[in-house]
Fold this protein.
Amino acid sequence: MENIKQLRWGILGAGIIAHRMADALALHEGSNLYAVASRTPSKADAFVAEYNGVRALSYEELVQDPAVDVVYVATTHNFHFENARLALEHGKHVIIEKPFTVNAGQAEELVRIARVKKLFLMEAIWVRFLPSLRLLKSKLKEGIVGEVRLIDISFGGFVPPQYEKRLITPELAGGVTLDMGIYPISVACYLLGELPVEIKSMAKFSKTGVDELAAYQFRFPSGAFATIKTSFNLKTEKKALVYGSEGYLEMPDFPVGESFTLYRHDGTNDVLETRQFEESNGPNGFEYQVTEAVRCIREGIFESEIIPLDETVAIMEVMDRMRAEWEFKYPFE
């Protein structure tokens, strides 16, 4: 695999996210979009018409095709586990659109298969790979705000019509936590470099029975706290604030903002310095996770240090625990 000039990708699913990944692959010289599969033939046909040279295959044909090196799972949440397992069992490297699976049990099984078969596996939480967020993390590591003590993230808004069915339908594993809440949860863990040891949460449920508004509070081993608010049915700020012993950072337009501002102090309420940092996130955003996946596969690495598999499973466990507190299960669980 290391000697392949271009990695050939197959995409399972032909919806909005699949199109965005296809556009990202076109930007990456080390990748070639080889095939797409959809349970809806008209979607696959439209996809092929848009992307020249792409083959429309069945799911089974795609994972059995020896020309396919990597499979990107872009189906609805409820199908992630079975689709990824199918690809892994046929010897394909796999990237799964977030959330990795619906629950931690499913995640553990996929990780087990990938490790036994020595295949690359990664959750595609694309924002963790963005240059702006990686810059923010590097500045925190440098101690730019001193000891990090609190992360406060708001991430909400009214769901656009094209995403509504996926978000509100229990049978599709809808709900704000798996779809939107996972972003601030994952980012908080990424920025701190640790996982929460104490979790408190609450949720408000929609008429269809999924969580539409949720709030989480986490305590981490370092003593840092995180507070997160998220909703798909409420217009809120999209902002991250990271408070430390010597200042704080503010990132508007979370999680895709291309700038953040430092406010330094000397342990008092007086701000002594204000400084802005900027970093472009490119035309698509997905291209950075593609770059990381291709690098790992070419180097014979089976998971990314940016989002390790054990952390992916642990974050699924966090969301499982919160849903258990809410007595919220999906119909197929």
Remarks:
- The CA atoms of residues 247 and 269 lie 10 Å apart.
- The chain has a mean pLDDT of 96.
- The chain has two domains: 7-127+285-302, 131-280+316-325.
- The longest strand covers residues 148-156.
